[in-house]
Amino acid sequence: MFFKGFYHLFYQYNPDGAVWGNIVWGHVVSKDLINWHSLDPAIVPSEWYDIKGCWSGSATLLPGDQPAILYTGWANSSQQLQSMVVPKDATDPLLREWVKIPQNPLLIPEFGINGSSFRDPTTGWLGLDGKWRIVVGNKRNHRGVALLYTSKDFVHWVKAKHPLHSSKLTGMWECPDFYPVPLSGNEGLDTSAMGSSLKHVLKVSLDDYKYEYYTVGTYLRDMDRYVPDNTSSDDEHGLRYDYGKFYASKTFFDQYKNRRILWGWINESDSVADDVSKAWAGLQTIPRTVWLDSVSRSQLLQWPVPEVESLRRKKIYKQSIDLSSGSVVEIAGLNAAQVDVEVSFDPPRVEIAEFEEEMGVNLTAQQLCGLNMGSAARTAGGPFGLLVLASKDLNERTAVFFQIVRYRNELKLLMCSDQSRSSLQTDNDKTTYGAFVNYMGSFKEKSLSLRVLVDHSIVESFGEGGKVCITARVYPTLAIGKDAHLYVFNNGTSTVTASKFTAWEMASSYHSTQH
């Protein structure tokens, strides 16, 4: 939320340890989305309706610039209930104190709703009838459900006769998010915006799968129903913001710079014992702007907010790095543990006849990325890309790469993040992530773009202008600090050229804990 000159980020936090439990709402503020100041927790368990934890929710700016937060409380009855807090002093730009309103709880799981699967209210939007609307995540048997509620005053809520949307066999829908995007341009829209020149997005976090998916579609405001376009799957096979370590995401409209900003939670890939040892767990991605791809109008694009570029320091620029088969070229001269890399590849000019056989036609893109030793595979179409957080001897490395594959008798573009050799530690989750890139045109006609942000143990990758994004959490034991190296590689059988390569050593942001 942006309020009176400050960005406010609220997050789920356990003040007593690095494991889940005793959840409160942490609160940090920033002028630039990069450097942050911690404040006292905004919401803590104190009443019967939230005594076992204050879970996720959303902020809404009401008329008159009045902030309000709806959140899920875990009651002493083990039911999940929706309540509201408002600022004690709405003139305070830091919003340092919040109070629970006397009408709480505002929403209870009535009408046969499963009280253990009733959580995460969205930001509100205002209809033409003057009523507010919100969605709450739910499930009915194995059907994911976005329950719809309406209110005249944002306090007294009425459950609609039907959900905003639902989808069979998707399980519990956590952290739903519903918002408009313009058909063209990369600007954001207020959550209440309506009209013929926009689409709507519904994103849900799948509790059963621990990843998310979204659809693009039409909000039928007269019927209060959302209808996805028939351009992607409306289930666990659907489009994702991010195909890696990324969950419980939330967007907000930044009215200050007229953009929609996306936050996502990066959970850990090491053991609980490791988390306890380092005394912290979980973090947020670099904030991203998100908008509709105006060409396809069927998927979203994402890009790190430009403010992150204020951390760029030493720059290295190279042109026309020719990568013959098996090439591994080091990019030296900067601290590769904290780096921002942008590279364009001229891909191999391959024909479908050059591929001896199809990749597994029943495999997912993620499974294809892990075939034949992942980034160590050797095919006509690659792989080629970057080795980040790599040790000098390459015994540790995280590979982010493209690969052209023959799949269902056509050429497809894969983007992958291979963590299989990211650490010598043996008890980490080293899943290889990947997705097909919606590539327009011929591989002979244009280059492929890749941006990778590296921050010691976090790798955020953006392919083809943000069509595919993959976040990885890795724990190198050798490639640490000045011992981290950066390479460009090509393991394909054909030559690839890195036509443009730019890397910036990145300064650290600051995080103050002074109130």
Mind explaining what this structure looks like?
Strands 9, 10, 11, 12, 13 and 14 form a six-stranded antiparallel sheet that branches. A six-stranded antiparallel sheet has the order 24-35-26-31-32-33, with no helix packed on it. The protein has helices at residues 272-278, 365-369, and strands spanning 2-3, 6-13, 24-30, 36-43, 54-62, 66-74, 80-87, 98-100, 118-119, 125-126, 132-140, 143-151, 157-159, 165-167, 173-182, 198-206, 211-220, 225-228, 247-254, 259-266, 283-284, 288-292, 300-304, 312-323, 327-330, 338-346, 384-390, 398-407, 410-418, 433-437, 448-455, 458-463, 468-473, 485-490, 496-506, 511-512. The protein is mostly beta strands and 515 residues long.
Offer a quick outline of the entry:
The chain is 2% helix and 46% strand. It contains 2 helices and 36 strands.
Structural topology:
Layout lengths: L1 E2 L2 E8 L10 E7 L5 E8 L10 E9 L3 E9 L5 E8 L10 E3 L17 E2 L5 E2 L5 E9 L2 E9 L5 E3 L5 E3 L5 E10 L15 E9 L4 E10 L4 E4 L18 E8 L4 E8 L5 H7 L4 E2 L3 E5 L7 E5 L7 E12 L3 E4 L7 E9 L18 H5 L14 E7 L7 E10 L2 E9 L14 E5 L10 E8 L2 E6 L4 E6 L11 E6 L5 E11 L4 E2 L3
Parallel strand pairs: 4-36
Antiparallel strand pairs: 1-2, 2-3, 3-4, 5-6, 6-7, 7-8, 9-11, 10-11, 11-12, 12-13, 12-14, 15-16, 16-17, 17-18, 19-20, 20-21, 20-22, 22-23, 24-35, 25-34, 26-31, 26-35, 27-28, 27-34, 28-29, 29-30, 31-32, 32-33
